[in-house]
Amino acid sequence: MSLRNFRVWFLILALAAFAFGRVPAFAQDHGDAAHSPSVATDATQTAEKATGHAVGEHAGGHETAGHGEEHETPGTFDPHAGTWLHPIARLIFGDPPVEEVDHDGVKGFSNIKKDFAVVALFVMLCLGTAGVLGARRMKLRPDGKPMGLSNIVETSVEGYRNYLIGIMGPFLASKYAPLVSSFFFAILFMNWIGLVPGMLAPTSNPNIPVSMAIVAFFSVHFIAIKEAGIKSWFMHLVGEPLWLAPLNFPLHLIGEIIKPISLSVRLLGNVFGEEMVVLNLALLGIGLSLFGVIPIPLQFPMLCLGLFFGALQALVFSTLLAIYITILSTHHDDHDEHNINGHVEHVPDGHGHDRIIAHPSEATVA
Amino acid sequence: MLYWGLLGLGVAIGLPIAVIGAGLGQGRAVAAGLEGMARQPEAAGTIQTAMIIGLAIIESLVIYALVMFFMLNPKLPTVDQATAAMKDSAGTTATR
Fold first, then answer.
1. A9-18, A88-97, B46-55: which range is least confident on average?
2. What angle do CA B63, B31, B34 make, to 5 degrees?
3. First vs last Cα of chain B: how many Å apart?
4. How far apart are CA A177 and CA A179, in angstroms?
5. d(CA A307, CA A303)
6. Could you tell me if B4 and B75 are in contact, meaning their C-beta atoms sit under 8 angstroms apart?
7. Does residue B37 contact residue B50 with C-beta atoms inside 8 Å?
8. How confident is the model at residue A53 (pLDDT cuts 50, 70, 90)?
9. A55 CB near a chain B CB, below 8 Å?
10. Does B15 touch chain A (CB under 8 A)?
11. For residue A289, what are the contacts with CB-CB under 8 A and spacing of at least 6?
């Protein structure tokens, strides 16, 4: 393990990036050099304020001015630091230059509320480019399998499609796999880009999960009406014993309305909570710096956990969407029909085995 | 002061209560899932998928509490605000 090795330097750089990640190190170009300190000093100042060393000094100043009156108080879900794409966001939305503000001891920048949109567009652009390149420039190995980017794209898309077949059944899955897997991959990479130091997960802003859930809500009902007919869709809402309809109908209506809310709040809370944990651990690690300069990457385990939770939340969002589609799109009469295996279906997968899947009408999820 | 005290209690205790309930529920779900997997190893994949989805749904209840925590957290006073309010209410019997 010599230092001449490129990979060793890459590892050290990556560790340093993890150590400095999530820190408001995004000094903006507003003129004087005194206001744009180096990363380390900026970070240590932030940490001092965060760990409460400077509470005494602050008390006098804030008592008269009132906390947060000189600047707009940030919303709960506003980020504390800008991303690397912030200049582009400023270019697009035409915001004034940023200035440093100090909310609750965390130093941030003033107009970074719209960064998430640019990051989301960036993720979608990257995903679309990868998909198109993987589909168009396919190179084959000698044994007939794709290589490189095409291989990655094909493996992931086909793997997810096979997973969907297990949930939705082959007919619905072949038709609506593009919709559901688009949700999956978009959410997956939007969650994961938040783990890159200096970037922000767009799903940690309420706008992105809520808009996704609205699209999911309307697509579920549109697909249900298109696949099973409006009568079956309505009978789903009315419920099984017809004479209990006055009781069942409002319940089902509320259940349908709650679905997108629960989808969006689940995604938002998970990703935002993980981001806040990483932020706080990073600030703590800076507060406990070795020799006052080398921060300890305390947030590293949380980043690994975030890798897993980001994938899990993407999986849950898209799986629930698939289940919602399946529940409403199966004909209402199918509910009580037992096939030969009871309430399960055997679906052949590609490898000569049968996969046992539960009948969709058995699934009750809210 | 009473308002802030109750707010602090709510912020501090609401999430742990949700965590206790969800922990018990997730424990039961995982136990049942593992039992089913041990009994029917051929259906392990299906059971695992359903179990993970169920776990995520249980966990989302905690996440609602977490979101409430994040929304209530900035409403707590800073130290100087709290000390100022204590000084104010020392003479009077104000309840704020």
1. A9-18
2. 115
3. 4
4. 5
5. 6
6. no
7. no
8. very low
9. yes
10. no
11. A44, A47, A295, A296
Beta bridge partners of A346: A356
pLDDT at B96: 47
Half-sphere CA count of B48, side-chain side, radius 13 A: 9
Q: Angle CA(A203)–CA(A209)–CA(A210) in degrees, nearest 5?
A: 145
Instruction: Taking residues A128-140, report their average pLDDT.
Output: 84
Whether chain B has a CB inside 8 Å of the CB on A262: the answer is yes
Taking residues A307-325, report their average pLDDT: 90
CA distance B75 to B8: 9
Asked if B26 contacts B55 with a C-beta cutoff of 8 angstroms, the reply is yes
The reply to whether residue A273 touches residue B71, judged by beta carbons under 8 angstroms, is no
Q: pLDDT tier at B46 (50, 70, 90 boundaries)?
A: confident
Task: Give the closest residue to A105 by CA, choosing from A56, A41, A36, A64.
Answer: A56
Classified as helix, coil or strand, B56 is: helix
pLDDT tens for each residue of A153-163:
888 999 999 98
Q: Which two tokens stand for residue A301?
A: 């385990």
Contact A223, A157 (CB under 8 A): no
What is A264-279 written as a DSSP string?
Answer: HHHHHHHHHHHHHHHH
In angstroms, the CA A132 to CA B19 distance is 44
A232-236, A316-320, A350-354, B56-60, range with the lowest pLDDT: A350-354
A163: tokens are 């997973």
Give the nearest chain A residue to B81 (CA atoms). A63
Joined tokens for residue A160: 């997810």
Best mutation target, B52, B63, B71, to test chain A (most A CBs within 10 A) = B63
**pTM here?**
0.72
